[in-house]
Structures
1.
Amino acid sequence: MGLLGRRPQALPDCADWIIDGRLAAMCMPTREELEHLRELGFALVINLTEKPGPTQMAASVGLKGAHLPLEDGAAPTLE
């Protein structure tokens, strides 16, 4: 089961499930895509870009946002 006890739902085109129904990843979302994620039951958006814009936009549609910028789009480390 996934978000809110339901099966994984269809995500926006540029998104994909990392853990079915629990964790997804996507490119730079539009406001409409963030609204769709909220409607699916998502509660948190973690922004790994250097720009705070996606985090602020997430908050504007009722999602919690965390900004953890990674330099030049590098992969996160375990540290």
2.
Amino acid sequence: MCALGLMMASMHKGDMAFAIREMAVACESGNLERVKQLIAWGVDPNVEIEGRTCLMRAARFGQYMVVKRLLKSGARPT
């Protein structure tokens, strides 16, 4: 298990702040595997981070594969 996996496993259920910040970074950088992990761990693909959704962040940085995964995972394009 990766370091993030260990950290997530030890987090309290209600504390998703770290995971949400991690999702923003993964979407912007095109880290598709991390995006998949975070969604599997319960991060909502429609979560807003500083006024931008994950989908907006991935699209802004040209991360086509992340955009595709977010849409497949239920991200709303509107």
3.
Amino acid sequence: MDQNNQTATKHYAEIENFADNLIAEKNLVNIDEPTLRQMRDDLVERLEQVINRIVVENIPEEKLPEFEALIDRDAEPAE
């Protein structure tokens, strides 16, 4: 696994852990396990969206062409 994948995996695990802690702090005792899993998955997804939005909103304007090129490169199908 390369350095970028390791970092991404670590960050995703931290987001999952944060979501687990938020749910635990709410002390939701009368909710079945499938519902708790869905709540966790939804929370993780929303957290990722918010984090990504904040990162993109804070990219300096002079770096936008570089960022767009990176997105375009990653969006191309693998051959």
4.
Amino acid sequence: MCIRDRLIPLNLTKRILKKAGAKSISRGAQIKLVKILEKELSIIAKQAVKNAEYLGRKRVKSEDIKQAFEAFRERGRD
């Protein structure tokens, strides 16, 4: 993954991991977390867009995101 292709900055993942209690974080761990988050966020975002389009809207609203996230979580439990 090229640095310019990332949507989530590595610094953000470092802060998240620090807040979770990590004392030290490797660059590889940050990059892996970015890849995972971007993949999962992309799935949620695409579903949210589908939800809005299904309801005849061009604008994605918070309820579309919420519904997409809930569907994503349900799929993860199977």
